[in-house]
Write a sequence for this structure.
């Protein structure tokens, strides 16, 4: 197991699950305190441990009880957003592309695409993703591509 400070410094002291700041000086027993978590197992590495990631103690504990949920930013205007964790899992296993949201305007889609790529750079850093926006039916589809 890696040193907490080493993992925290590498991850910029942000929780890989909720993407909120983690206080390096907080008690490891506090809900918002730092914790080292084994993240998702990389593609092709069956039965092994995932990369160690920084998490809040509460986020890490909750992940042990229920599947983690990575929320979309409430500042985005997206319709029918796909669950991020399940999408990352499928794209990590199969590759390809998936429609992950619909947006009413091109600027909303551009903003959502930039946010999603940035968020996934911390949530799933080993998954190389790009986004593509397709107009259709008076809306804009946001596609996420792996590979």
């Amino acid at each position: 197991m890696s040193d907490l400070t080493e993992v925290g410094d590498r991850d910029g002291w942000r929780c890989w699950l909720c993407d909120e700041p983690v206080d390096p000086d907080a008690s490891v027993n506090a809900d918002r305190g730092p914790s080292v978590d084994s993240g998702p197992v990389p593609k092709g590495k069956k039965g092994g441990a995932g990369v160690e990631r920084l998490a809040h103690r509460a986020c890490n504990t909750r992940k042990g009880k229920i599947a983690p949920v990575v929320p979309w930013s409430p500042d985005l205007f997206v319709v029918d957003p796909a669950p991020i964790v399940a999408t990352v899992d499928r794209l990590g296993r199969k590759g390809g592309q998936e429609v992950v949201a619909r947006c009413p305007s091109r600027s909303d889609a551009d903003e959502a695409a930039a946010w999603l790529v940035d968020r996934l750079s911390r949530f799933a850093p080993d998954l190389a993703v790009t986004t593509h926006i397709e107009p259709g039916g008076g809306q804009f589809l946001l596609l996420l591509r792996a590979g």
About this structure: Residues 106-123 form the longest helix (18 residues).
